[in-house]
Structures are given as structure tokens and as C-alpha cells.
Amino acid sequence: MPRLTRIYTGKGDQGTTSLVGGRRVAKDSLRVNAYGSVDELNSQIGLAISLGLHEDLVRILKTVQNDLFHLGADLATQEEDKQRVRVPQIEPRHVDALEQVIERFTTELGPLENFILPGGSPGAAALHVARTACRRAERECIALSRAEPIGAHVLAYLNRLSDALFMMARYENHAHGVSDAYWDSRA
Q1: Which residues neighbour 23 within 8 Å (Cβ) at sequence distance 6 or greater?
Q2: Which one of 7, 89, 103, 113 is least enclosed by Cβ atoms within 10 Å?
Q3: May I ask the CATH class of domain 26-175?
């Protein structure tokens, strides 16, 4: 585990930052945008947890938050540097765990009959915001992957996580007795 002895270094004052492995890049590079969005997503999940989510969701989301640090390290390390610098990475087991969450809540809640509107209880609304942050992080990782290689399981993880967050928002509403609000396409 890294030991952070200093929070600021002043090295980024000119608009660059260091990737794991030492290479300096612009703070608005595709790679930094991608892992910055993952960091924002993690914060959104932390906010949702702080709203008093159902304990089953808190347990799952604490694991997801840790996994998102793995994802951030994965993205902050160029693929060619992963040979010499060991960093946690997203693996198939992380994707599988999210699929199990989605399947569990799909079984418990039943299939959707229509698109639902984001909202409901405060916790569910926060999970919907986290879901949209996850979708943005996924889009930014796709853009990065077109420019340079990224971890093999990054995109699948983010794709499953957004679906899992959607199902968790539905579950949070259900746990609080709040019905899904369906989209009225004729309105």
C-alpha cells in the first residue's frame, strides 16, 4: 500500500501530472480525464452511501469503491509500464462480481416493463447520478482506448457497473417502498 507523506508537491502547477511509471502528461490528456472521471464516480458512490443506503447496497458499494481504486491505478499506468510496475488492475473476477449483483437484483425486482425516470428516494437518486457518472467514465475510457491501449477488462467493468448502479437504485427505492416512475412516451 502506498504511503502518502505529502499531499502537494507543486510539480503539477504547470498543468502536467505523473502517471504510474513516471511519465508526465498534460492534466487534460485522455488518460487523466478517464481516471479523473473514475475518481468522480467513486466520490458520487461515497455520497450515495452517506445518504443511508440499504445495508446490502453499502456492503456491495464499499467493494466497488475499492475496485474503482484498482481501476484508477489500471488507467494511470500505461500498458507498456505494467511489465515493470505492479499495479492492481481490473480482472474478470471484478466483472463477474458485478454480473452477480445485477442478476440478484433482477431476480428480486423482476423485469422492467418500461424505461424508468431517475429519482425516487434520496439514495436511489444519488445512485442514478453515480450511474450517469459511470457512463461518462466509460465514454472517456472508450476515447482513450482508441488512442492507446488500456486494461483488457476496463470497459466491461464500467459497462456492468453502470447497469449494477441502475439495479441498485431500483432496489433502494423498493427497500423504501418507493415505486419506479415510468417514462410516459405519449406525454
Answers
A1: 78, 81
A2: 7
A3: mainly alpha
pTM of the predicted structure, to 2 decimals: 0.91
Q: Which are the contacts of 41, defined by CB distance < 8 A and separation ≥ 6?
A: 68, 130, 133, 134, 137
Helices (H), 51-121: 55-75, 92-109
* C-alpha cell at position 85: 510496475
Which residue in 64, 164, 52, 49 sits closest to 109, CA to CA?
164
Cα three-residue angle 72-78-81, rounded to 5 degrees: 115
Cell of 41: 464516480
pLDDT digits (tens, 9 = 90+) for 105-162: 999 998 888 899 999 999 999 999 999 999 999 999 999 999 999 999 999 999 999 9
- Helix, strand, coil % in the chain, rounded to nearest 5: 60, 5, 35
The confidence band for 185, taking pLDDT boundaries of 50, 70 and 90, is confident
8 A C-beta contact, residue 155 and residue 94: no
Only one residue has cell 469503491, namely 65
Return the amino acid letter for 103: E
